[in-house]
Design a protein that fits this description.
This protein is α+β, with helices and mostly antiparallel strands. It folds into two domains: 56 residues; 135 residues, 2-Layer Sandwich (Pseudouridine synthase). Strand 2 and strand 3 form a beta hairpin.
């Protein structure tokens, strides 16, 4: 109908809600059938979730796909999901690290890199989502995919807890959980994502 809303609604998604759940709430609130979101956020992740309303959904494929995040990486732990939501696979002592050591390790993850998605992810494997197969007890060998990390900065480091805060600007399809995992592997102690907030998506 011509008087129905058309445009973009940018939510600050709270923890605990799925992206699909946000779409459902907006559909009911506006009485709309056509509502689309600009990039899925895991339930525990907060921040920018752009929603297209009405005929504006046609514009979603043409918007800039890059995303920006702020995240907290916990070193010394490996989990099945590469974040602290998942089952712990192993723990290890965090080596004595200075900010310079972390900066050198982060440098290897800037630019065009090959990234293996987390086991618990929405990647399709033989027609089924990876996370569904993992929940059925499978151990998957996911193929690495090309992604681009435009910017990766160290914002803070707490040697006492083994946690570091980073800011990441990256291409669509980049998993920050996988970055946390791979950084921990590079430092020899394992790592998992403790907290994540998206600060930019689709140019919003």
């Amino acid at each position: 109908m011509p008087d129905q809303p058309c445009g973009f609604l940018v939510l600050d998604k709270p923890a605990g809600l799925t992206s699909h759940g946000c779409v459902g709430r907006v559909r009911r609130a506006y009485g709309l059938k056509r509502v689309g979101h600009g990039g899925t956020l895991d339930p525990a992740v907060t921040g920018v979730l752009p929603l297209a309303l009405g005929s504006a959904t046609r514009l979603l494929p043409y918007l800039e796909g890059d995303k920006t995040y702020r995240g907290l990486v916990q070193l010394g732990v490996r989990t099945v999901s590469d974040d602290l939501e998942g089952e712990v696979l192993a723990r290890a002592a965090v080596p004595a690290l200075e900010a310079g050591d972390l900066a050198a390790a982060l440098a290897a993850f800037r630019g065009k890199i090959q990234q293996v998605p987390p086991q618990v992810s929405a990647v399709h494997v033989d027609g089924q989502r990876a996370y569904k197969r993992v929940r059925q007890g499978e151990q998957l060998e996911l193929a690495a995919r090309p992604v681009t990390v435009h910017r990766l900065e160290l914002l803070g480091w707490d040697p006492a807890s083994g946690a570091l805060e980073v800011e990441v600007a990256c291409s669509a399809g980049t998993y920050i959980r996988a970055l946390a995992r791979d950084l921990g592997e590079a430092l020899g102690c394992g790592g998992a994502l403790a907290r994540l907030r998206r600060t930019g998506a689709l140019g919003f």
